[in-house]
Amino acid sequence: MKEVDRMGWRVAVGAIAAVAAAQFAAAVEPKGVPELMTAFDGKTKIGTVAQWEGVRAPELLERFTKCEYGRRPVDRPDTLAFELAEPDKLMMDGKAIRKRVRVSWKGPLASQSFVFTAFIPVTAKERPAPGFILICNRPAAENIDPERVKKSGFWPAERIVERGYAAIAFWNGDVAPDDSKGNCSKGVHACWSKERTAESWGALSAWAWGASRVMDWIETEPLLDAKHVAVVGHSRGGKTALVAGVYDRRFAMACSNCSGCSGAKLNHIALPKSESIARISKTFPHWFCLNYANFAGKEFEMDFDQHEFIALIAPRLVCVASATKDYWAGQRGEWWSAKLASPAWELYGMRGLVAESFPKPDAPQQEGCVSYHIRTGIHNLTPYDWDRYMDFADRHGWRK
Ligand code: GTR
After folding, report:
1. How do strand 224-234 and strand 129-136 relate by DSSP bridges?
2. Domain residue ranges of the chain, discontinuous segments joined by +
């Protein structure tokens, strides 16, 4: 390599590293963020729970439904049914009862079913157990093995049970395929419609709908404490966990791990290394309603943003988590959403994210009703993250 080329190469590498470092280390501030507590009419200020629940939350929910995640044709179908897919089994050295449940439904156009797994601590016989539902977006056989031959840090079921929580999981692809070319024409989408309109529900909404059907079963299961159930997901699953928490108020907590763009990440912040709406709506058009693509390149012009989506979960609990090397998810944007959502909790006399600034790695901010942590490492869901989610539930008395 000629000396001049080598220098050019060094300059280029240096420039890339500098952008990444600046994005993470420097205090990049959001700009022009839509005001959570001002209604879309630009005049009405929201200062009470009644105004929030009567005016602002409904108009925000409608905005996110119409413009981002799409409209569901149905909530709980009348035809919904549960049956044991296998007899119950004592597992994990006698510490957990395993249940395998098939949930089925019939829509106007087709029928469908899927099986999920629940490991319930045996102590639940004395007192119903709180639980965590994982929306698993990684290969099921390796990550949510019901036989526990394959064990993965993505779903440390033994650890979850040991800490007194039920570990429940299903595979997102069993509800609707994660297929960018499929145009939402299979799985649960196909049970209700053959056509996809601008506002039709995308895959994120469909997967979250699946989590709600698991919740329907939990409400029938005496070993489980349906009032203390969290929904957890990573990456596309982390976006889905927020959708589940927003659209189904039975979830007492939503844990959004490394969810990034169209999940926890704020759009009104310049993080050039992170995913954009243009990119996500092109690569994964099936995750959203078709209207979402209209916002490509318009991040700073939008009159709604993801902090407002998180706020819709108030006054329930939310966990947002990032990883130090996960620039694609835009860590500071994830933190800012958690921070800027917090006034919604304050209306209820509670606290949201109690933190003045972006934390150091591995120093969780868990004092209020919104938890944030950034773990050292890459884009992943790990036992460290799970422990923080369970710490937060413990803190809020879930195992009292
Ligand atoms: C990426 C996508 C992200 C994130 C991730 C995942 O390719 O750009 O938005 O969701 O996939 O789900 O693993």
Report:
1. parallel
2. 2-37+67-75+119-395
- Arch. (CATH architecture) of 2-37+67-75+119-395: 3-Layer(aba) Sandwich (3.40)
For ligand 1, the distance from its centroid to the CA atom of residue 375, given in whole angstroms, is: 18
| 195 φ, ψ (degrees, to nearest 5) | -105, 145
pLDDT digits (tens, 9 = 90+) for 305-359: 999 999 999 999 999 999 999 999 999 999 999 999 999 999 999 999 999 999 9
Question: Does 260 contact ligand 1 (Cβ within 6 A)?
Answer: yes
Long-range contacts of 49-56 (CB under 8 A, 24+ apart): 49/347, 49/348, 52/344, 52/347
Does ligand 1 lie within 6 Å of residue 204's CB atom? no
pLDDT digits (tens, 9 = 90+) for 150-196: 999 999 999 999 999 999 999 999 999 999 999 999 999 999 999 99
Whether residue 320 has its Cβ less than 6 Å from ligand 1 = no
